[in-house]
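Work Package 3 (structural annotation) set out to generate three-dimensional models for the target panel prioritized at the project kickoff. During this period the team completed the workflow that converts sequence records into discrete structure tokens, so that structures can be stored uniformly alongside our sequence database. As a representative example, we reproduce one entry of 85 residues exactly as it appears in the project archive.
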Amino acid sequence: MIKDSGNARWGMQFIWPIKAEYLIAYLDEAYTQTIIARNARDYVWIMARTPTISDLDYNRLMLKVADLGYDIRKLRKVVHQKVPY
């Protein structure tokens, strides 16, 4: 978490000394789907608490990503398998 950002701005450090900006650009009311973005507009993630997102929701989230200034033609949807717990 980055101080004084209201928990909406985070930082990541994958491997020292590489750091990355991690902005919560969108979060749905149920806290189940989010868009993580960067001011540089070079990376964006659409994430959900479930292994799949309906096509309707995914298309809606893609429009939000486009509104943020990203080229949605570069998005790659990753298929996830449900993990048994």
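The first helix runs from residue 55 to 67.
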